[in-house]
Amino acid sequence: MASDKRAARLGVLALVAVLLFGALGTRLWFLQTVEAPRLAQDVEVERTKTVRLIPERGRIFDADGRILADNERILTIGIDWDVMSERSDRRALFQRLSGWIDVPVAEMERRFNAKVYSPYVPMPVKEDVDERVANALEERSEDFPGVQVVYDWRRRYPYAPLASPVLGYLGSIPEDTADQYVREGYVLNERVGKDGLELSMEEVLHGRWGEVRFRVNAAGQVLETLRYRAPVNGQDIQLAIDLDVQQYAESILQTQLQFRRNFTAKNPTVETVQADGSIAKGPIDPSKPEYVPYKAPAGSVVVMDQKNGQVAAMATYPNFDNRWFNAGVSSKKFAQLFPPSDTKGFDPDTSTLVNRAVQGQYNLGSTFKPFTAYAALNSGFMGINDVYEDKGTYKMRSIDQATCDAGVRCVFRNSTCGGTTQPCVYGSVNVLTALAVSSDTFFYRIGEELFLRRKKLLGDEVKKWGFGSETGVDLPFEFDGRVPDDEVKRRLIESGALGEDEVPRLVSGDNLQVAIGQGLMAASPIQLAQGYAALGNGGVLNRPRVVRAIYEPGVPNATPGYADLGRAKLVKSYLAGEKTGKVDVAPEHLQAIIGGLRRNITGPGLVVDGNQLTTTAEEVFGLDYPEPRAIPVAGKTGTAQAASSYPWEDSSAFAAFSMD
Fold first, then answer.
1. How far apart are CA 467 and CA 460, in angstroms?
2. CB neighbours of residue 331 within 10 Å
3. For the chain, how many structural domains are there in total?
4. Whole-angstrom Cα distance, residue 654 to residue 387?
5. Which residues make Cβ contacts (< 8 Å) with residue 183, sequence separation at least 6?
6. Are residues 27 and 84 in the same domain?
7. Residues 32, 114: one domain?
């Protein structure tokens, strides 16, 4: 009986063994026949290596071919990802390498764990390495497995800080947009445009990565090249910016701002109601002396061709030096250099990264009056010969006396005259003379009367000149301007820019302020330049452009520091300009407006009661404007009162166009 049981057990074991060997054989047959091609492919993949080839970024030239943004070859030490998989091996390699390249082990570990570097290129651990160090590491390759010397490009700005806000700078790919960059063919650890033309023209300047695929043995040695795709370098661009004009604009802007700080404004006396109902007089800011220096903290200059919108110079102050970003700026230092915008969205005067020419949000003061004049003429409210009697003050007719007596402002004045505390009185003025002497009361009346006709009439008319919308300039982060209406005012109250006690809709008093370029309206210098260019060319709005032309990659050099544009292959030219709108302005209306702007520059002003009153720009250009020796100019000065009502915080503007 026992032997029978033993035989049964052996039989079962034999059956199991047969089944196991059968399954093993079947699997072996499956691997050798069905799966053989796939396994061979897997082995082949495991024994191939792909290397990405970096393109050279396109260069940037000024109008005369001077090289404003260039590239230089540098050596970078990188480590192959394959040799860093084991922590102990990686740590030992980092420790050996640290002393050679003067990079702490902790920094190399940080880079390894950062997950911002592409797996297709060696992880960079030290950029811009001395050639002697690179050669020494290559000679000791057995001691530093996987360590490679990689050729890379570094951006150079030979004329920095000139035009830095226009050119922009390069930086790391932002983490929140990394996936998008990868989909577009970028490598995670490359540097991309972060501001200025480097950002807005990124697609043109960047180029496309190349690729080479090798077959390698188990030791990583190259056996053959399987595929090679050359990198495509970025296209070169020529700017309309003339470096000589740019340098002059930046220099004169900074010099004049510093000069203006030597002037003072009187700390004016104001009346305040005391708790007991009595009236007390005192300075508007008791903490300040009788005369306070002007702040003059910031400014901008735009020089543009009125025929095609090409920008010959664009200056902003304070500005930055784009070479700082090549040297590496810590987050702490970055915060010191570039304080962020405040919570209301208005850039502080100290903000260095703001290109005020396109991002500035300013009241334009009296430089806005030509467009208010157009609104009055085009809407039929007045004709070019209609006369208004300027008595120095204007009382609103849409507000009853009881409301005025309750404290609502109803009376508005011209600016003070001849060093007195009294407003200027200009007497009989029409559109031309009102522009020439900058009569505020003339334009206050327009503001109220157009509001009474239709609340949005003034806004709709001035929008035709580009205000309240982006110009389309080929630079990033453009401010679209602000022409107020009910919705705009409501948003300003909600954001805290206006007090909660403000009426949440546009009222006639708001329109009076807009009519003289103050109050709730705001525009950028590039918008003002576009508007004045349209006045000068007959009403055509052209898209402002900093870029003049795009060329195929590799424009050759001429003399040192210059590109040979004569041998460049043109891809696209913007020299003809791009019309974005046309203002329907009657010739006689335009003639009256330009006449007023011309007289504002050259004079004469007006004689009132035997007193000669000058125009606002005569003091700027001199009472004897040198007509035979200068370009004939039509233009307008402007001063906008600060929100604080402190005179030393007022802003000034000047806009003009050539009549040649």
1. 10
2. 7
3. 3
4. 26
5. none
6. no
7. no
Report the alpha-carbon distance of residue 141 to residue 147 in Å, rounded. 7
Residue 345 has pLDDT above 50, yes or no: no
pLDDT mean over 108-127 = 86
Both structure tokens of 86:
């084991």
Q: Peptide bond preceding 161: is omega within 30 degrees of 0, i.e. cis? A: yes
Average pLDDT of span 139-163: 91
Prediction pTM value: 0.86
Residue 520 makes CB contacts below 8 A (sequence gap 6+) with 482, 484, 488, 489, 492, 506, 510, 513, 514
Model confidence at 414: pLDDT above 70: yes
Residue 469 has pLDDT above 90, yes or no: yes
Kindly report the number of other CB atoms within 10 A of residue 210's CB atom: 16
| Per-residue confidence band for 19, with pLDDT thresholds at 50, 70 and 90 | very low
Strand, coil or helix: 124: strand
Residues recorded for the chain: 660
Q: What is the pLDDT of residues 323-334, one digit of tens each?
A: 988 866 666 666
Whether the pLDDT of residue 289 is over 70: the answer is yes
Residues 536 and 464 in one domain: yes
| Cα distance between residue 218 and residue 221, in whole Å | 7
Q: Give Cα 284 distance to the centre of its chain.
A: 36
If asked whether residues 359 and 485 sit together in one domain, one would say yes
> Measured between alpha carbons, how far is 191 from 638 in angstroms, rounded to an integer?
42
The CA-based angle 522-460-479, given to 5 degrees, is 30
Q: What CATH number has the domain bearing residue 59?
A: 3.90.1310.10
427 inside domain: yes
Read off the DSSP letter of residue 659: -
What is the per-residue pLDDT for 105? 92
Q: Which residue has the tokens 């300013």?
A: 362
Domain of 454? 355-543+586-660
Cα–Cα dist 267/313, whole Å: 36
